[in-house]
Amino acid sequence: MTGIGVQNDSTEREAAMKSLLPTTIASPFGRYAHGVEIPPGWRIAITSGQLALAPDGTIPDDPRAQADLCFANCAAILAEAGMTPQNTIRIAAFVTRREHMQAYMAARDAWLGDIKTLPASTLVIVTGFTRPEFLVEVEVTAAAP
Q: pLDDT band for position 16 (50/70/90)?
């Protein structure tokens, strides 16, 4: 580990965090865990819901590009806390149409990369956001020593 709470060794994270996947309930529908256990004393970072708004005020047209931008915004917030996507313990996401689910899930899976301790995840279909051009919103909770 280097810096204040910054983990460069994903093995340390994998050993400390635990995906909760009880065999007594159905398996998750996608690449996520039913729950995540974190060790006592770890710091928590929670993002607000991130919409696909670029720093220059532009909004991508398609749901995959919007989801990618939402996750990029979440990564920037986590970086402010000395964390990375590897520290994610929960994702909550919202899409405006069922047809946007696959694009969102592809962006989520790409953002998570090759982590082995998968976060808990919820995806909800909503009727809309503050502006009609927004199609996706993402919130992330992360934890680190």
A: confident
Q: What are the DSSP calls for 26-73, one per residue? A: PPPSSSSBSEEE--TT-EEEEPPPEES--TTS---SSHHHHHHHHHHH
CA gap 63, 104 in Å, rounded: 7
Digit-coded pLDDT (tens) for 60-106: 999 999 999 999 999 999 999 999 999 999 999 999 999 999 999 99
Instruction: Identify any residues that bridge with 2 across adjacent strands, giving them in sequence order.
Output: 6
Q: Indicate the pTM of the whole model.
A: 0.87
What is the C-alpha to C-alpha distance for residues 2 and 17, in angstroms, rounded to an integer? 18
Structural domains of the chain, with CATH: 10-144 (3.30.1330.40)
Give the separation between CA 67 and CA 109, rounded to whole angstroms.
11
What's residue 6's pLDDT? Answer: 41
Distance CA 51, CA 69 (A): 8
- In the numeric block, the tokens 């051009």 are attached to 133
What is the residue-averaged pLDDT of the chain? 90
Phi/psi of residue 139, each to 5°? -120, 145
